[in-house]
């Protein structure tokens, strides 16, 4: 038993010694590792993307310096273009600033034995120096910076097409913000960023208005609504059309920024209509019963557009968006809207020949001698011109200074001057009017006055000439 115990005791001592030896060796290895990694990077260490495992500060900085010397910045431009700037073009080079040494000091070298499976990346601000003037000039020489290669940005806008108006999309263009490009490139070069995208970095000048702009789309709809209507004026044998080509020139923006119609421009158009189509009181060329051409001046017959009323009506018609055929709002109306606004139903009075004709629908149903106003007495001469029948009354009493005369048919056309029967006369025509004329009225045989009265109406034209 004693021998056996002695053997066991020796065995234990041997095991203890072996353990102590292992521990000493392990401790030595550990501290050797601690010492080694106090000036070497731990396994799995990457500095600025480069594998620096087991490298010293100097070796790491030499690697970073080489990477700077070999650095080429990729510059991506709009439209998949690519350009580059090398370190040499900007005289770019690495300068040690102690950053790598500080990084090494901060690594946990006491846990080096745990680092063999690590994958740890470090980013340090490299101390980079470059020639500022060279870099500025290099950037300035890039193809993307050349003016001849640049397309300026353009805003989306409203354009007329065949059927209306549409929005033309914006043009992004290729014009760069030069200072922004310089700043972006300088930063990338100093930080080692391998690639920059000028579009992603917002270096391009941008349009201010895009196709989806709410205001632009609202305005386009307003313009199309206002110009999409066609207004046709009916002047019997003539027409005038108000359409997109005309309305587009009348558009203005109001205080709220909405498109509307410029009242003054619409009024100017209505005024032109009046100048072209109004006949009220205008000089006319008239063909007499015997084929003579007479120039008729004065009178109150004809058409006259109500300028204010028609301006308002036209604006409302356009705003309604309803294509339509319309007549203007008239202040005065004749019987015919044709170029010859006298038409086929009218009275014709020839003062020189003391003859009066009444045409109905182009057929003379009255052709009679008459007695008109005495030209030798001031105020009694029958006025000339183109007039309209102002009223009709049967019977009637005509009154004036020193007289009162009953008549059966009274058709005034120029104030107190009118056509009426004159039963007190036995003769008509000839030169009677010179020595025994009326106070201005057209004295007419009873039966002829009746025919006219029964076939005429208020507003019918009366043409009087010498």
From TrEMBL:
Keywords tagged on the record: Cell shape, Cell wall biogenesis/degradation, Membrane, Peptidoglycan synthesis, Transferase, Transmembrane, Transmembrane helix
Transmembrane annotation, as ranges: 14-37
Gene Ontology biological-process entries: cell wall organization; peptidoglycan-protein cross-linking; regulation of cell shape
Pfam families: PG_binding_4, YkuD
Every L,D-TPase catalytic domain range: 345-465
Active site residues of this protein: 420 (proton donor/acceptor), 441 (nucleophile)
Pathway the protein contributes to: Cell wall biogenesis; peptidoglycan biosynthesis
A GO molecular function held by the record: transferase activity
GO cellular component labels: extracellular region
Record-linked CDD domains: YkuD_like
Name of the protein in its database record: L,D-transpeptidase/peptidoglycan binding protein
Source organism (scientific name): Candidatus Blautia faecavium
Higher taxonomy: Bacteria, Bacillati, Bacillota, Clostridia, Lachnospirales
């Amino acid at each position: 038993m004693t021998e056996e115990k002695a053997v066991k005791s020796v065995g234990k001592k041997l095991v203890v010694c072996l353990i102590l030896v292992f521990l000493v060796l392990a401790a030595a290895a550990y501290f050797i590792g601690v010492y080694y990694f106090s000036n070497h990077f731990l396994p799995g260490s990457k500095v600025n993307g480069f594998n620096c495992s087991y490298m010293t500060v100097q070796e790491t900085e030499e690697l970073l310096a080489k990477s700077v010397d070999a650095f080429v910045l990729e510059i991506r431009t709009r439209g998949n273009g690519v350009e580059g700037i090398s370190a040499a073009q900007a005289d770019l080079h690495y300068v040690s600033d102690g950053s790598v040494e500080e990084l090494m000091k901060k690594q946990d070298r006491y846990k080096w034995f745990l680092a063999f499976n690590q994958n740890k990346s470090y980013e340090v601000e490299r101390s980079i120096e470059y020639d500022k003037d060279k870099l500025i000039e290099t950037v300035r020489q890039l193809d993307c910076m050349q003016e001849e290669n640049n397309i300026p940005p353009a805003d989306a806008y409203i354009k007329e097409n065949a059927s209306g108006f549409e929005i033309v999309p914006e043009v992004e263009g290729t014009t760069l913000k030069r200072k922004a490009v310089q700043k972006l490139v300088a930063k990338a070069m100093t930080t080692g960023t391998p690639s920059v995208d000028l579009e992603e970095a917002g270096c391009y000048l941008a349009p201010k208005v895009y196709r989806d702009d709410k205001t632009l789309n609202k305005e386009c709809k307003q313009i199309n609504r206002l110009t999409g209507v066609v207004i046709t004026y009916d002047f019997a044998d003539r027409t005038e059309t108000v359409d997109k080509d005309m309305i587009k020139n009348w558009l203005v923006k109001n205080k709220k920024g909405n498109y509307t119609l410029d009242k003054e421009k619409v009024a100017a158009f209505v005024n032109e209509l009046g100048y072209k189509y109004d006949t009220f009181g205008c000089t006319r060329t008239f063909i007499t019963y015997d084929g003579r051409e007479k120039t008729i001046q004065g009178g109150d017959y004809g058409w006259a557009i109500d300028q204010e009323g028609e301006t308002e009506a036209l604006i409302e018609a356009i705003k309604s968006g309803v294509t339509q055929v319309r007549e203007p709002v008239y202040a005065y109306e004749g019987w015919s809207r044709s170029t010859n606004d006298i038409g086929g139903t009218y009275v014709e009075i020839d003062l020189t020949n003391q003859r009066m004709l009444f045409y109905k629908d182009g057929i003379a149903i009255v052709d009679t001698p008459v007695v008109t106003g005495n030209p030798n007495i001031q105020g009694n001469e029958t006025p000339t011109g183109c007039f309209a029948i102002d009223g009709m009354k049967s019977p009637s009493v005509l009154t004036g200074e020193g007289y009162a005369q009953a008549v059966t048919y009274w058709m005034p056309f120029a104030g107190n001057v009118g056509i009426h029967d004159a039963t007190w006369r036995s003769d008509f025509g000839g030169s009677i009017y010179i020595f025994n004329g009326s106070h201005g009225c057209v004295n007419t045989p009873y039966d002829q006055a009746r025919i006219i009265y029964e076939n005429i109406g208020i507003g019918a034209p009366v043409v009087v000439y010498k």
